[in-house]
């Protein structure tokens, strides 16, 4: 008994002395490139799409590049993959019709990959598109890739057994979300879905019932990865994909590791973005984000050429950021993942209340709750800055800390009682607590109601949900306003459940604008989306823009060429190399 | 059985005149076993120290609003201007200053000291209330089962087994949201007291079995003792049996099991909040603080230290006092 | 079966065919298997026998701590055999018990004053002069200092505690007290004091006493009549002097022989009990003592001997071949 007490007192003493030994925190602002804007365009000049990709400065061939991640990639079937890890890995083993030329700093250019250019809008109405397949691309067995294999890849994405991947092409081709009943792949293995034809071996032709001006973006997703029908192993393809890219899977141990080695049939001259620097890539699954980060920071042995896939966990951010020696081994970059305080417009119908919320918001405090600028940067627009054509504006300028007085003035003495639905995860609970304190200082009464974490997304996607406010985020599949604004704010799409428009915002004039801009040529759209973004915020304030996620990565001293994808916000592997 | 030598519950029979016994007052009144336990407790320095600590904790918990008044800071007040860009407190040792005795929480920037004071209040209230409820349920069911036996015993035993078979975490996870929805719909404000109440009920529902089993065993042992037979032979009814003959003899096991359940519930509340099942973010709670602080082991150790040391001290004090109490009530068990 | 007032002429306690079987695995334990005896008002009856013979069970049956399996118990004209708690209540005060273990029989959490007053309290009896005065009087009567009524049992010695137990039994002024081995747990030096106390109380208060004991010396000292039990049955019953000086049953003789300076008799004193008593789970057929009896004959295995009076006196024996003398060597078949 006494011994126990003595141990306790001793332990406490050691802790206290350890504590008093640490130095005072005097602050100091981390630097995040927040003013960055995407300047992306669709490269119409075939020379932009020509290979080979420019050499990466300092890169050399050889070595093993390791990627550490806690959760395994469930499979690498290109038609089925939709996770960020999968989307960033598939380019190593599969070519797609188009792809992004990305410098990791917002300079984006959509180029042809399997196609010679990012597509041709045949009648200038976005309804008929043709892609001319590049010559000289080969599968891992040396066979050439033709329009037929690309078409087969798209066709197999209709198979309900192979669900899980993006569904844009499928839905657009048959013009219904129930694409797998509209066209049965398993009964038509030898034919192509309606609207998709291969007039010759080097031409792929899409015909749509409605204008689909974003098609060049949509075919950058791995749905368009080619596959010879005789190599289709169905659900087993995920364990042994058939490569058309610079690497092929040579070992697949489910849940443990994936090893990819060079594909000698890949020809650098046909590829505008990829390289083939390391001898092999190894995905190693298991270590927690904490463990992985600590391993690459320690920088021993194989970990020297390793990347910790997950963002630096909050528990380590201050330590990693405070270590000047690690600066060269970290990457800090905003992502296109945008977070809003979504206002349920079906409930909060008073524009002044919505505007007052926008004036009241204290983004600076919120970012501190999230863990600082290495986790989030404030945002005042609907579309994230990484969107092509994005323009920064603040419709309700209130400074970084919010302007409670202006909010009160707008409320004119009333004290709206709003219910904030928050997931019961630890972080979101803290964010909700922050928002409650913030908004109550500005004259609102906020009730926090918890929603089970795993059910929250489904619940807020139900129209008629009982909450006035909730946190929502959106990461588009390509950085075009078309994949953001109409998806989130077109009131005509509202149905009983599964709504992406979880603000339940519906304005006929804005809906008409969506229709108008969607039929414009993609190159002209971006400026118009940016203008509409500002107009929606000024006229309707359907949400309170909060912040974009920030990617903060750490890697070993010999790992090079890693940048954060401007499209997905995850580490891109196409330039990866092992330094000598 | 009639030839067996006498074996009594009290280790030392005191001589005929009682001269060898502990000191007694002039009236010649004897020392009840309870009073003897109290005397033993008073002579135990560990008991005194842990008891004093417990009293201090209780006073702090009770006086929380008063402390808030003099301290000038509430448990929900935020001081984010005193956090750096990572949301970590500025200054030495997690922002410890004359204004913020234990510094500030990272992120939300709330004052750790006042949140600990209120956390203590929550924690002690939950633990004590749950322990009282647990003891009442356990004693009532254990006594009835042990004394009356028969089908009632079978039913209570069955309920005990059933309760033990219930998955605690699943119920703790599923029940609160269900009850909240049932009583407050989807939009009404849920008072913090409701969450606390539900937690207490969950603890009580799952916690009584140990006490009930202990008490049942004790009652069965006591039931066979001759003083119970003497009372029955005199025609005593069940009321007299339970409350005059049996319960006074159950005080020690009840107190001991109570003293064991209190720290169990203090850590239980912390553990539940730790896995995000317990109280809501707005209710100050040790468990939640410790859970949130663990992230900061490397970057803001002061945030780990203060709640950790306080809950450690609290649980240690309750446990040490419980040990001392057990020793005092039953000197045989003392090492 | 009369519910009316006690018939002063009849015995205070009448036991007929009293049986108690405990159900256990392997069949019932026949702890008490058909007892017949009577106790008159003011009379002392000793119940002796080896441990396990059922005498303690009998004591507990008499005060209805146990419910009989069969037979009947009649006390002061009331049938107690299967009476419920409510029915027993008015009689409880007149029928008390003293236990063997003075440690277990007192509630350690109560001061002795409250222990002694317990029977008054549960029967809601308010004695003249009040409960406190009654407790003082009782403590004085059993030889305890009344000033000690606030003390707790653990502050008393074994002998003193037994006095507390006796005082408790006397609180309601009972007419019959069952004393179950009242001194066997005490030091030998203390035993005599308690025995003398019981004797004095019997004399002063005129209570009837059923003394259950394995100690023949104690029984001889206290009891006017003695019943000898073996395996749940009475094998011999009679006045003290008859039993101690003229034992007819071989078992009684064996018991007496085992105790020096108690029974002086003739050649039969050489009788020795050998072996263990058979289990009451499966008692021997016929006479239960036959497996250890030097006189056992074929008849003993077949026919169970009845308890029969001899010489028209108060002494009754259950034996086919009773008598003080050793049997003739030749078995008397003709008698069968």
TrEMBL record, chain A:
Segments forming a coiled coil: none
InterPro entries: Peptide/Ni-bd, SBP_5, SBP_5_dom
Origin superkingdom: Bacteria
Signal peptide: 1-23
PROSITE patterns listed in its UniProt record: PROKAR_LIPOPROTEIN (PS51257)
Keywords: Signal
Signal listed as a keyword: yes
Domain Solute-binding protein family: 110-491
PANTHER family on file: ABC TRANSPORTER SUBSTRATE-BINDING PROTEIN, PERIPLASMIC BINDING COMPONENT OF ABC TRANSPORTER
Name under which the protein is recorded: ABC transporter
Source species: Micromonospora andamanensis
Organism placement in taxonomy: Bacteria, Bacillati, Actinomycetota, Actinomycetes, Micromonosporales
TrEMBL record, chain B:
Gene3D superfamilies in the cross-refs: MetI-like
Family matches, as PROSITE patterns: ABC_TM1 (PS50928)
InterPro entries reported in the protein's UniProt record: BP-dependent_transpt_permease, MetI-like, MetI-like_sf, OppC_N
Pfam families linked: BPD_transp_1, OppC_N
Compartment(s) where it occurs, according to its Swiss-Prot or TrEMBL record: Cell membrane
Keywords noted in UniProt: Cell membrane, Membrane, Transmembrane, Transmembrane helix, Transport
Membrane topology reported for the UniProt record: Multi-pass membrane protein
Region (Disordered): 1-31
Lineage top rank: taxon: Bacteria
Residues in ABC transmembrane type-1 domain copies: 120-322
Transmembrane region(s): 47-67, 124-149, 155-178, 190-209, 302-322
Family: Belongs to the binding-protein-dependent transport system permease family.
Protein name (database record): Peptide ABC transporter permease
Organism of this sequence: Micromonospora andamanensis
From TrEMBL, chain C:
Signal peptide segment: none
Pfam families tied to this protein: ABC_tran, oligo_HPY
Domain ABC transporter residue range list: 13-256
Keyword check for ATP-binding: yes
UniProtKB keywords: ATP-binding, Nucleotide-binding, Transport
Annotated GO MF terms: ATP binding
Region (Disordered): 313-336
SMART domains registered for this protein in UniProt: AAA (SM00382)
InterPro entries given in the database record: AAA+_ATPase (IPR003593), ABC_transp_ATP-bind (IPR050319), ABC_transporter-like_ATP-bd (IPR003439), ABC_transporter-like_CS (IPR017871), Oligopep_ABC_C (IPR013563), P-loop_NTPase (IPR027417)
Family per record: Belongs to the ABC transporter superfamily.
Protein name as it appears in the record: Dipeptide/oligopeptide/nickel ABC transporter ATP-binding protein
Organism: Micromonospora andamanensis
């Amino acid at each position: 008994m006494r011994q126990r007490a003595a141990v306790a007192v001793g332990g406490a003493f050691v802790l206290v002395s350890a504590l008093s030994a640490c130095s005072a925190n005097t602050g100091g602002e981390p630097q995040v490139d927040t003013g960055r804007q995407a300047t992306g365009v669709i490269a119409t000049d075939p020379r932009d799409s020509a290979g080979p990709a420019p050499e990466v400065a300092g890169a050399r061939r050889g070595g093993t590049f390791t990627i550490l991640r806690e959760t395994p990639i469930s499979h690498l079937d290109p038609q089925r993959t939709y996770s960020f890890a999968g989307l960033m890995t598939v380019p190593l083993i599969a070519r797609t019709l188009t792809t992004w030329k990305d410098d990791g700093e917002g300079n984006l250019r959509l180029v042809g990959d399997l196609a010679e250019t990012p597509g041709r809008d045949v009648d200038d109405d976005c309804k008929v598109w043709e892609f001319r397949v590049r010559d000289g691309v080969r599968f891992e067995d040396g066979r050439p890739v033709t329009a037929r294999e690309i078409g087969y890849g798209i066709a197999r994405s209709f198979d309900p057994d192979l669900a899980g991947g993006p569904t844009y092409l499928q839905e657009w081709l048959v013009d219904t979300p129930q694409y797998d009943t509209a066209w049965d792949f398993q009964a038509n293995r030898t034919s192509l879905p309606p609207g998709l034809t291969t007039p010759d071996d080097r031409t792929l032709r899409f015909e749509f019932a409605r204008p689909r001006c974003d098609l060049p973006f949509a075919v950058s997703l791995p749905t368009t990865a080619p596959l010879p029908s005789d190599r289709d192993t169905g659900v087993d393809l995920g364990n042994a994909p058939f490569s058309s890219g610079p690497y092929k899977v040579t070992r697949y141990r489910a849940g443990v590791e994936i090893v990819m080695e060079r594909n000698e049939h890949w020809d650098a001259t046909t590829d505008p973005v990829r390289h083939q620097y390391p001898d092999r890539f190894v995905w190693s699954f298991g270590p927690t984000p904490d463990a992985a980060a600590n391993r690459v920071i320690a920088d021993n042995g194989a970990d020297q050429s390793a990347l910790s896939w997950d963002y630096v966990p909050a528990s380590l951010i201050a330590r990693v950021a405070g270590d000047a020696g690690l600066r060269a081994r970290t990457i800090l970059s905003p992502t296109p993942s945008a977070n809003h305080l979504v206002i349920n417009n079906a409930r909060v119908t008073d524009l002044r209340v919505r505007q007052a919320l926008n004036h009241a918001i204290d983004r600076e405090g919120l970012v501190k709750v999230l863990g600082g600028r290495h986790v989030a940067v404030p945002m005042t627009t609907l579309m994230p800055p990484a969107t092509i054509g994005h323009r920064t504006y603040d419709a309700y300028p209130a400074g970084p800390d919010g302007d409670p007085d202006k909010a009160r003035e707008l409320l004119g003495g009333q004290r709206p009682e709003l219910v904030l639905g928050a997931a019961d995860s630890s972080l979101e609970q803290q964010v909700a607590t922050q928002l409650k304190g913030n908004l109550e200082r500005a004259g609102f009464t906020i009730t926090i109601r918890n929603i089970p974490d795993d059910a929250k997304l489904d619940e807020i996607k139900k129209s008629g949900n009982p909450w006035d406010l909730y946190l929502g985020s959106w990461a588009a599949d390509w950085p075009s306003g078309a994949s953001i604004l109409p998806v989130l704010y077109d009131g005509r799409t509202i149905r009983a459940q599964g709504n992406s428009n979880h603000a339940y915002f519906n304005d006929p004039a804005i809906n008409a604008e969506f229709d108008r801009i969607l039929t414009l040529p993609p190159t002209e759209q971006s400026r118009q989306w940016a203008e509409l973004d500002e107009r929606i915020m000024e006229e309707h304030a359907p949400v309170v823009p909060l912040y974009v996620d920030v990617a903060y990565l750490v890697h070993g001293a010999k790992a090079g060429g890693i940048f954060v994808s401007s499209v997905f916000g995850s580490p891109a592997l196409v330039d990866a190399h092992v330094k000598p | 059985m009639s030839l067996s030598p006498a074996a009594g519950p009290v280790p030392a029979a005191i001589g005929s005149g009682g001269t060898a016994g502990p000191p007694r007052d002039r009236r010649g009144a004897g020392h009840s076993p309870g009073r003897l336990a109290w005397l033993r407790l008073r002579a135990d320095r560990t008991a005194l120290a842990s008891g004093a600590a417990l009293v201090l904790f209780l006073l702090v918990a009770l006086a929380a609003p008063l402390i808030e008044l003099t301290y000038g800071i509430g448990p929900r007040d935020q001081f984010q201007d005193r956090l750096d860009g990572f949301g970590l407190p500025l200054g030495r040792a997690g922002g410890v200053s004359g204004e913020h005795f234990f510094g500030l929480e990272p992120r939300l920037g709330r004052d750790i000291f006042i949140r600990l004071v209120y956390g203590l209040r929550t924690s002690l209230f939950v633990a004590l209330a749950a322990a009282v409820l647990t003891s009442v349920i356990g004693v009532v069911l254990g006594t009835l089962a042990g004394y009356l036996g028969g089908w009632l015993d079978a039913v209570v035993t069955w309920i005990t087994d059933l309760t033990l078979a219930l998955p605690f975490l699943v119920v703790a996870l599923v029940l609160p949201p269900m009850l909240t929805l049932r009583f407050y719909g989807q939009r009404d404000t849920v008072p913090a007291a409701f969450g606390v109440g539900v937690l207490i009920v969950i603890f009580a529902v799952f916690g009584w079995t140990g006490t009930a089993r202990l008490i049942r065993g004790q009652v069965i042992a006591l039931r066979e003792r001759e003083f119970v037979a003497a009372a029955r032979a005199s025609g005593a009814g069940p009321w007299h049996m339970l409350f005059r003959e049996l319960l006074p003899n159950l005080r020690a096991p009840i107190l001991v099991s109570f003293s064991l359940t209190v720290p169990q519930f203090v850590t239980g509340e912390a553990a539940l909040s730790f896995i995000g099942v317990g109280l809501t973010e707005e209710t100050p709670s040790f468990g939640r603080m410790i859970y949130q602080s663990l992230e900061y082991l490397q970057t803001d150790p002061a945030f780990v230290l203060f709640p950790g040391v306080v809950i450690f001290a609290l649980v240690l004090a309750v446990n040490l006092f419980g040990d001392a109490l057990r020793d005092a009530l039953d000197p045989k068990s003392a090492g | 079966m009369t519910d009316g007032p006690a018939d002063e002429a009849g015995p205070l306690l009448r036991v007929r065919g009293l049986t108690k079987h405990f159900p256990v695995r392997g069949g019932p334990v026949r702890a008490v298997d058909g007892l017949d005896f009577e106790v008159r008002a003011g009379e002392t009856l000793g119940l002796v026998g080896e441990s396990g013979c059922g005498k303690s069970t009998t004591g507990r049956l008499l005060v209805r701590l146990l419910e009989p399996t069969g037979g009947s118990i009649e006390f002061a004209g009331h049938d107690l055999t299967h009476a419920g708690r409510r029915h027993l209540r008015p009689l409880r005060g007149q029928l008390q018990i003293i236990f063997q273990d003075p440690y277990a029989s007192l509630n350690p959490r109560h001061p002795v004053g409250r222990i002694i007053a317990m029977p008054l309290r549960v029967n809601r009896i308010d004695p003249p002069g009040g409960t406190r005065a009654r407790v003082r009087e009782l403590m004085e009567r059993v030889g305890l200092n009344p000033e000690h009524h606030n003390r707790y049992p653990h502050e008393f010695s074994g002998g003193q505690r037994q006095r507390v137990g006796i005082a408790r039994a006397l609180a309601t002024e009972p007419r019959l007290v069952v004393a179950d081995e009242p001194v066997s747990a005490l030091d030998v030096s203390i035993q005599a004091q308690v025995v003398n106390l019981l004797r004095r109380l019997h004399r002063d208060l005129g209570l009837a006493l059923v003394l259950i004991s394995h100690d023949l010396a104690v029984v001889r000292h206290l009891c006017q009549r003695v019943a000898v039990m073996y395996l749940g049955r009475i094998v011999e019953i009679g006045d003290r002097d008859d039993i101690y000086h003229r034992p007819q049953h071989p078992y009684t003789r064996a018991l007496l022989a085992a105790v020096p300076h108690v029974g002086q008799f003739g050649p039969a004193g050489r009788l020795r009990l050998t072996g263990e008593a058979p289990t009451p789970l499966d008692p021997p057929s016929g006479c239960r003592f036959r497996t250890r009896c030097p006189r056992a004959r074929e008849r003993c295995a077949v026919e169970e001997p009845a308890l029969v009076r001899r010489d028209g006196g108060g002494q009754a024996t259950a034996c086919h071949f009773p008598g003080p003398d050793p049997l003739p060597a030749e078995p008397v078949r003709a008698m069968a």
